[in-house]
Amino acid sequence: MPGLTQPPQAITGPAVAAGPVIAVRDITKTFGETTALHDVSLTIARGEIVVLLGLSGSGKSTLLRHLDGLDRPDTGTVTVLDAPVSRLHGRPLRALRGQVGFVFQQFELVGPLTVLENVLAGALFQMRGPRLGLWGYRRELKLAALGHLDRVGLLTHAYQRADTLSGGQQQRVGIARALMQNPRILLADEPVASLDPESSAQVMALIREIAIDSGLTVVCSLHQVDLALSWGDRIVGLRRGEVVLDTATQGLSKQNMMEIYGRVTTSTAELGAIDTELGTAPDEPDEQGEPDEQGELDLQTFSSARDNRR
Ligand SMILES: Nc1ncnc2c1ncn2[C@@H]1O[C@H](COP(=O)(O)OP(=O)(O)O)[C@@H](O)[C@H]1O
Ligand SMILES: [Mg+2]
Description:
The chain has 310 residues and is α/β, with parallel strands linked by helices. It is built from 13 helices and 10 strands. It has helices spanning 2-5, 8-12, 14-17, 60-67, 90-97, 115-120, 139-151, 167-179, 197-214, 225-231, 254-264, 268-278, 299-308, and strands spanning 22-31, 34-44, 49-53, 75-80, 83-84, 100-103, 185-189, 217-222, 234-239, 242-248. It has a 6-stranded mixed beta sheet, with helices on both faces. The chain has a 4-stranded antiparallel beta sheet with strand order 2-1-4-5, covered by helices on one side.
């Protein structure tokens, strides 16, 4: 077969070969005494599903905010869809942001408004002036919004108040709202940090499905190693504002995974937990999975315990 002898570029196709969708070069960002990002470089190709993984304070949100020009670096450059984001202002910046959807940790819905109105708000950047109620939107936009609600499984909730939905449903509305922009890139900042594990898994699966269907490039921050490993194609680990890891997730061994924990975590308690997982700690946890009070720490509990310490 000719395909087998072709070089990788031929398999990925000309659209990918055209250049990266996101190129971050040597950016450093300080807030007063705090260095939020230090010499960060990152290149992301079209269609990649990338997790930014790191503890609270490691710089994930700051990096995401640089990608749509909400923050500007002290030094270095950010290029998104061939635009020099860090130097854009006004209309060109708004035009770029129109191509970059954003999903927030706290959903950022307007609770008393309907689900449909919240989704429609994602199209506001295309329109002039404020909208009051549903009649302010063109019919095509309403149909598009209903289509996106169908896509996230919430069509029957379109006319319900947003604040009557569960957390997982609200985040699905957040995704539908981001899709209203017909974005080429989707940024998500800890989109499931406020959700229970089951809703988290559903929301992450949905983002992945939509990204693959629509050829979106996704950059999503997470602090849970296990979720990052199961969800992303590539993990970029941040620690204290520096990239300490950049790896594809496919084919990683458990040992590799534990090394990832080692790179993105910092405290001795966390390193102790890694030892426990690897079975190198002095007190081995019970093989049957019966938690012993101090030793056993599964990855999920590990993540939540870490969060609670913030
Ligand atoms: N607007 C800001 N003003 C001052 N410090 C900030 C600001 N934004 C972020 N930081 C600091 O930068 C570091 C990285 O923060 P952030 O990007 O929010 O991390 P993460 O999203 O990984 O939790 C933290 O020390 C944080 O306190
Ligand atoms: Mg953050």
